[in-house]
Amino acid sequence: MDDVAKKVFRRAIQEASKHIWGLQFGVILAIKASMLILTRKSGETITIGEEIQIKVLAVQGGKVRLGIQAPREVAVNREEILLEQLQQDEKSEG
């Protein structure tokens, strides 16, 4: 695992531990190193705690469209955006 991947994993664990559950990818939810895998159909919802809802809006080909409702203080990002932010942080620190 390269350094950027390790940082992403560590940050995901930190965020997950703050909010009990952390969104990993699509409809996969993680607590620390364990993973709960759920199957949902279009129109179905996953609830995380009392404040976070993830709804499957559409499934077309290899893409899943999700709607995420969460408090403003909960960071919700696509993985590539998080990786980009980590790389920028690393450059500014270096």
Features:
2 helices, 94 residues, 34% helix, three-stranded antiparallel β-sheet, elongated
Secondary structure: elements and pairs:
Layout (H helix, E strand, L loop, with lengths): L2 H17 L2 E4 L2 E4 L2 E4 L7 E4 L3 E9 L2 E7 L9 H15 L1
Antiparallel strand pairs: 1-2, 2-3, 4-5, 5-6
Helix pairs in contact: 1-2
Task: Please give a structural write-up.
By secondary structure, this protein is α+β, with helices and mostly antiparallel strands. It has 2 helices and 6 strands; from the N terminus they run H-E-E-E-E-E-E-H. The chain has one domain (3-88). The protein has helices spanning 3-19, 79-93, and strands at 22-25, 28-31, 34-37, 45-48, 52-60, 63-69. The strands form 2 sheets. The protein has a 3-stranded antiparallel sheet with strand order 1-2-3. Helix 1 packs across helix 2 (79-93). It is elongated, with a radius of gyration of 14 Å. The protein starts with a helix and ends with a helix.
Relative helix content: 25-40%
The figure for the number of domains is 1
**pLDDT averaged over residues:** 76
Total of DSSP H or I helical runs spanning 4+ residues: 2
What Rg, in angstroms, do the CA atoms define?
14 Å
Proportion in β-strands: 25-35%
Q: In total, how many beta strands?
A: 6
Sheet/helix structural class: alpha+beta
Quaternary organisation of the protein chains? single chain
Query: Could you state the order of secondary-structure elements as H and E?
Result: HEEEEEEH
The N- and C-terminal alpha carbons lie at a distance of: 20 Å
Q: What low-confidence regions span 5 or more consecutive residues with pLDDT below 50?
A: 20-32
For the biggest β-sheet, the strand order reads 1-2-3
Large-scale geometry: elongated
Please describe the biggest sheet, giving its number of strands, its sense, and whether it closes into a barrel: 3 strands, antiparallel
